[in-house]
Write a structure and sequence with these properties.
Blueprint (H helix, E strand, L loop, with lengths): L2 H6 L4 E3 L9 E3 L2 H20 L5 E4 L5 H5 L2 E3 L2 E2 L4 H22 L7 H24 L1 E2 L2 H4 L3 E6 L4 E9 L1 H14 L4 H6 L11 H21 L1 H16 L30 H16 L4 H10 L2 H15 L13 H7 L20 H11 L4 H4 L4 H12 L22 E3 L8 E7 L3
Parallel strand pairs: 3-7
Antiparallel strand pairs: 1-2, 4-8, 4-9, 5-6, 7-8, 8-10
């Protein structure tokens, strides 16, 4: 949607003194802009609805808070058909040919020719990404319940968040999935399961587990009942059974908020940002004087009190690991339905820069097998950068973030959604600009 459409509909525009076609233009009728954008997105919503989703909403500017209320049904990548595989291989071969020419120092070309080739590379990349989106599939039994939100990204491109579930729908789907597992699962899969090799460093394990801790804190804060169970569990073990087991809940209420020592980037992670904002909001509301605070809490409705309990308990959770095969606070994570897809995205700085070339290529093989041979010829820093790009939108997670059963099969599940969750944000070919 261009400015002309907005103005033809009666929208007011304010232009700066030095405004040109791209800059210094302000659209002042927000309601009209919202209405026109929704109208622009409706055809996309109808296409998404035709995929078989139970519902599709149009939200031009879906925020983190908007998406956070949903949980997510997990997707998986199907194998391409012979025709699709042939087309993908052809596109990748064209990409490699262009890349080799661009990398050839002996190639004599002008800047315009180089830009033209780069544009061709981008076009081929877009087509490959479009193919990858068609290979993402969801369990049919869950699609009739789950839905999607059609929105715009910060650049004005159309983006579709698929596989979203409201709380009640998510719970029903989890119950359905549990009932579908046979008692013979372990017999079928467990005996043949080999113990995973420890292939990442202790430093990276702690870095990743810091992100898992932040995510688990946020999830516990969202589940007051689980938070209360965790507190009572800790008290009962100590008071009733005189036990001193190591548990993830520190009843002395020491906030575990120094995770940056393990992961310098965790402070900006969605989970940490969310927890910080919630704690600041409660801090502004509650008096610091002990007597006044007690009186405030005594008068507080039980549901609000439980919400506060959840925030406080969540802030004490610690789940730092030293080995790749460790899973601290596993029962707590299971109780809140922790899914790291909602809280962590694979990047070069956050993962691929810190593993060996072989380990990085092992990850790429899981989400972009056709790219492994090309990446194998690159330097490690280039591989890390390419791996980040290729991982976007695939939902891939390193082994220590995946549930044990996921090493055998992708199971439909409903888990919380976060702003950075890559596997749900499928950019469409269409673009809209205000």
């Amino acid at each position: 949607m261009g400015i002309e459409v907005y103005e033809q509909a009666g929208g007011a525009v304010r232009r700066d003194l030095f405004a040109d076609e791209q800059n210094g233009i302000f659209l002042t009728d927000a309601a009209l802009l919202e209405s026109l954008t929704k109208e622009r997105l409706m055809p996309v919503a109808e296409q998404v609805q035709a995929e078989g989703w139970g519902w599709v909403d149009v939200a031009p500017r879906a925020t983190y808070a908007d998406l956070h209320q949903f949980q997510r049904m997990r997707s998986k990548r199907r194998e391409p058909s012979k025709a699709e595989a042939k087309r993908i291989a052809k596109l990748e071969a064209q990409q490699r040919k262009l890349q080799d020419r661009l990398d050839d120092e002996n190639e004599d070309m002008t800047d315009e020719q180089a830009q033209t080739m780069q544009d061709e590379m981008d076009s081929l990349g877009n087509e490959l990404e479009a193919f990858e989106r068609t290979l993402v599939v969801y369990p049919a039994r869950g699609m009739a319940t789950a839905g999607a939100v059609v929105s715009l990204d910060h650049m004005g491109g159309v983006i579709v968040h698929r596989g979203l579930l409201r709380e009640g729908q998510a719970k029903a789907l989890r119950e359905q999935e549990r009932g579908g597992h046979s008692a013979n699962d372990e017999a079928e899969h467990g005996s043949g399961r080999q113990k995973a090799k420890l292939t990442i460093s202790e430093k990276l394990v702690k870095r990743l587990s810091a992100h898992r801790t932040a995510a688990l804190q946020a999830e516990v804060a969202r589940h007051p009942h689980v938070a209360l169970v965790a507190v009572v569990h800790r008290l009962a073990l100590r008071v009733i059974h005189d036990a001193h087991y190591g548990l993830p809940i520190n009843i002395t209420a020491n906030p575990q908020d120094r995770l940056e020592q393990y992961a310098p980037d965790v402070a900006e992670a969605p989970a940490a940002v969310g927890m910080r904002q919630v704690r600041e909001a409660w801090g502004k509301r509650l008096p610091s004087d002990p007597d006044a605070l007690f009186a405030e809490l005594l008068a507080m409705p039980q549901q609000e009190l439980l919400s506060l309990v959840a925030v406080c308990v969540g802030s004490t959770v610690t789940a730092i690991a030293s080995r790749e095969d460790e899973a601290p606070a596993a029962a707590l994570a299971q109780a809140v339905g922790l899914d790291m897809h909602a809280w962590w995205t694979p990047t070069a700085a956050g993962y691929f820069d810190h593993v060996s070339k072989a380990k990085a290529l092992e990850g790429v093989r899981a989400f972009a097998a056709g790219e492994v041979n090309r990446l194998d010829k690159l330097k490690k820093a280039q591989i890390a950068s390419e791996a980040e790009r290729l991982a976007a939108g695939t939902g891939w997670l390193p082994a220590m973030f995946r549930a044990p059963e996921e090493t055998q099969a992708d199971v439909a599940s409903a888990e919380p959604i976060g702003e950075g969750q890559a596997d749900a944000e499928n950019h469409e070919d269409a673009h809209a600009t205000a």
